[in-house]
Amino acid sequence: xxxxxxxxxxxxxxxxxxxxxxxxxxxxxxxxxxxxxxxxxxxxxxxxxxxxxxxxxxxxxxxxxxxxxxxxxxxxxxxxxxxxxxxxxxxxxxxxxxxxxxxxxxxxxxxxxxxxxxxxxxxxxxxxxxxxxxxxxxxxx
Length: 141
Fold this sequence. Notes:
Strand order of the largest sheet: 1-2
Helix content: 55-70%
Shape: elongated
Low-confidence stretches: none
Distance between the termini: 57 Å
Number of helices: 5
Radius of gyration: 19 Å
């Protein structure tokens, strides 16, 4: 489909899976930012954070990208995006006879995953900016 691609549908699915799984990194960064806000700005002790929040932070940072990556593979949603394989509609080029699988569940999962991905990106970005700002102003006191 695109210039220079080497591989097949399975290698594209594997690449899409691992690219999606890479979302763990910014999510963990956001969780660390929240941890430091709790410790520095709100003076919450480490034992309290560990007891009440740590497991949820790990779950959000690991399970969300892993679940989305598994959905992508299970519903065959990873296709070429010109540079790398990620969530894409296989029928975007208007091929004849394409689109039969895009009714119902598969289309709903595709739209859900895209909304979740972009929503998570925006939320993570805002979390990091807000927490770094809070820490900065707390340390300026």
